[in-house]
Amino acid sequence: MPVFGHLRELRKRFLVSFFAFVFASIVSFPVVPFLLERVRADLMGNVFLIVISPQEALMVELKVSLLLGLVFSFPVLVYQFWSFVAPAFLGREKTLTLTLLISSTLLFLAGNVFAYWLLLPVTMNFLINVSYPVALPMFSLNQAFSFAITLVVLFGLIFQLPLIVAVLSRLGLVDHMVLSSRRRYVVLGAFIVAAVITDPSVFTQILVAVPIILLYEVSILISWIMGGRR
Fold this sequence. Notes:
By secondary structure, the chain is mostly helical. It has helices spanning 3-28, 32-43, 56-85, 97-131, 141-158, 161-170, 176-181, 183-197, 202-229; strands at 48-50, 138-140.
């Protein structure tokens, strides 16, 4: 396919992905107030949530709507991406789009579940308990939900690591020996990421860093398996 053909195909894939995301976000908007209340009850208990600007509540509702749009449209986004990339593969790799779609969606949801049901409750509980001895905790609605949204999306993307490594290994672009030699840097990077996105609690940082390290170890194993099949 000529260059302009690729550009037209890319444009088509992008537009389909964009409109799927926008449509899913709009459809999700009516359930946002219920979801906000559910999240507040799950993660923040009796802590007061306040707004400090006239548009803050609306902006939070839009952010949550966009997050839901991303989650619900994620299979479409992944399908469009792999459908564009797949023609560059050789042989039977062209038949892997459905497998990649299912795997990527499940990994994204697994990352979301891990962040929401395990990481966020521990982190929020720690931060709230630290606040009580010195002040009455009252969180900004925008800051509290931005923090939660960031972790949910981030771990959905981090959980894509084994799949990405599998594809790169199958194409011969990486191998398990290279990944193994970078292990120490990944461990250090995982704890740096954990320190940046969580509270100062060592337990919480370990809770964030360990899954990243385990995903990397799984990726090394996958790379070894896929490399042996080339």
